[in-house]
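WARN retry 2 of 3 for item q-0093 after timeout on previous attempt; input resubmitted unchanged.
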Amino acid sequence: MPTESKRKQRLVEHLQVCPVRGIIDVISKKWAFFIISVLGNHENLRFKGLMKELEGVSPKTLSDTLKILEKEGLVRKKAFNEIPPRVEYSLSDDGKELRKAIMPLLQWAAKRSDTASEKCALKCHNEATKQHSSSEHPRIS
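OK item q-0093 returned
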């Protein structure tokens, strides 16, 4: 029969895991983690800006995931009364705290896979080069 202290220890261990389950369900969605990370890199972004940053996400998936993150209080949506309508997304205070909490995971993943980091760095370099060259030589349509 377990002693009282062992029962209390198991209760403490159980309590430490319970709050994580809800947030894990939210951020384990395919794009949620990336949305939080991208919004953390910017003060705020419009929907099209998020689409551009999150290469490969469909508009419906992005919209649905943003709604979930907003409902959970991790993302703020600010609608401007303008024509055409303008909406900007940013991290809430809880979203910023979550991003700080996941930064070690991002750093760990970057260190763990040099090949993935090199591919990511190359992609970021190519995108930065493309943006820089397009700003020097604007397209004429």
